[in-house]
Fold this sequence. Notes:
Blueprint: E1 16-17, H1 25-31, E2 36-38, E3 43-45, E4 54-59, E5 62-67, E6 73-79, E7 83-85, E8 99-102, E9 106-111, H2 113-122, H3 124-150, H4 153-164, H5 168-173, H6 180-187, H7 191-203, E10 207-210, E11 213-216, H8 219-225
Parallel strand pairs: 1-6
Antiparallel strand pairs: 2-9, 3-8, 4-7, 4-9, 5-6, 5-8, 10-11
Helix pairs in contact: 2-3, 6-7
Amino acid sequence: MAEVFTHRAPHTFGFVLEDNLLAYRDLILDYVQSPGAIPKGTVISSGGQASHYVYFLLEGLVKISVINIYGYERILGYHKKNTLFVMDGLRREESVIVTATALTQLRAAKLSLEDLAALFAREPRFAVDMVLYYSDVLKLMCYDAESQSSNDVRARLANFLLLFMQSSDYRSLGYVPFSQSELASAIGASRIQIARVCGALKQEGVIQVGKRQLRVLDLERLRQSASYQGFS
């Protein structure tokens, strides 16, 4: 049993989750031999409705968001391959909080609580790494709640940019691929507020802004605007 607790799957505290559970892809594919296809634009789970499953994402991109009573959407993050989403969907009698939307065609394995129990019995390390995965996502949600509740728009934007810079997408692209409207949705601000903050940061030489491209020119000065100092 000691060997189980020495294993650690790759994980990322980040706005974009990818390959966190890569080590268990073959295990899940062997168990669920016919993963389902989910069309682009499908709302897989919707806040306020019950869901009986979690989904292991094999291919595609999923947006995780919350929508308030006025219809305003705020993006919490994105899931890519080899991650679980609809993570609040296992208590069948209770409604989920977040909305999961397919931004591309998806291929995903649908897993019930019974399915997960069977997989854990086959591979106990999977249960341990699932706990760690939930811990990583909880850390992200706690960070998000703290950032939203106590910071001005400049600090929230700086926090978000530093968080996104930890993702593999940023490492491959070298820039943040969001419009100002998407940045506003991600941090709970208006587009006008984002435009003002981006303008100030650009004038200070901290960032460079193009069409759906934001490049960080001065990382140290961006860190000075952030409230959270736990980023690597």
